[in-house]
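Morning!

This is the sequence you dropped in the shared folder:
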Amino acid sequence: MHAWPASEVPALPGKGRDLRIHDTATGGRVTLAPGPVARIYVCGITPYDATHMGHAATYNAFDLVQRVWLDTKRQVHYVQNVTDVDDPLLERAIRDGIDWVGLAERETALFREDMTALRMLPPQHYIGAVEAIPGIVPLVERLRDAGAAYELEGDIYFSVDADPHFGQVSNYTNELMRHLSAERGGDPERPGKKNPLDPMLWMAAREGEPSWDGASLGAGRPGWHIECVAIALDHLGMGFDVQGGGSDLIFPHHEMGASHAQALTGEFPMAKAYVHAGMVGLDGEKMSKSRGNLVFVSKLRRDGVDPAAIRLALLSHRYRDDWEWTDRVLQDALERLGRWRAAVSRPDGPSADALVEELREALSDDLDTPTALAAVDRWAALQTAEGGADDSAPGLVSRAVDALLGVAL
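The structure's back. Tokens below.
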């Protein structure tokens, strides 16, 4: 599966700072100091509907992580999956009377278009669950043969008790984990499971649903969590720098994925930092496909909204915060974009050297984008009020805003 084209990231004078970021597992900030190549895995979409602002906010956060790393003169090895076979996708295809493969391909193509328009840096490896199946089957067999998985009526379940570190990503109580498991695709009430929290690794073939040859597992399809584990281990290995996604993936997805990988390898932890973006709401509720309260990136683009303004709307909120999408949020972003473009359109202006360092400091401080935007606002206001004699300043501001914030002026 191919990703989307990469926009050029301008080089800036000097060097950026190492990223200090909130780690869900420890509950505090960690300083990430990768080697020459930083490694990041971000969980991708289940392509049964278009990209909404919640998706965009999540991928924007991890695009910023990459930009901070690139500014430190590191390379970035970025991997993202597409869950192109799963219950929600199959259910939507049946509801709409269309082929599930065609639905997945259509929505994945639209996602690529949205990511391109928003100038999100693409992953080096963009892997669908279906194409990962040949790598998933041996991992499930290994877990089963090691006693870390068991069969139940043809389905294969992972035993969470096989990982002594289970629970150390979310640090949730057993009661909350059980509640979220039921709410987010698990089956804690199924009779015969060793532990109600045990997640499915391999679902035996069901009538009328797609299935694949699972060798000794029998025909079926993979569970949700093992998909990402297989892709991450294949392309990044254990101990990669950041596992990213929305905060709704803390449990069960990232908790279970970490336990799968740790049981498979005997190594801990799977990732050095578990980083999660907040939820975007509309009309008082989390924006989600199940609720149908969505603002689509593609719809805004069709309505003529500049993607740079959409990105500025996302950047106006701290990535870890839950926030509400409103018309005012977008209008503020449009006005800000206009002020910035007017400021950099002049032939000269106030020195921008200090601004570049302010941007670097804000972003290295747990991706503090509101502070970064305020710094550019101050430079633009000074440019409007007083101007300046530095003929390199407007160009430097444009390059810095593009390189570090992903906004083309």
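Headline: The longest strand covers residues 75-82.

More detail when I'm at my desk.
O.
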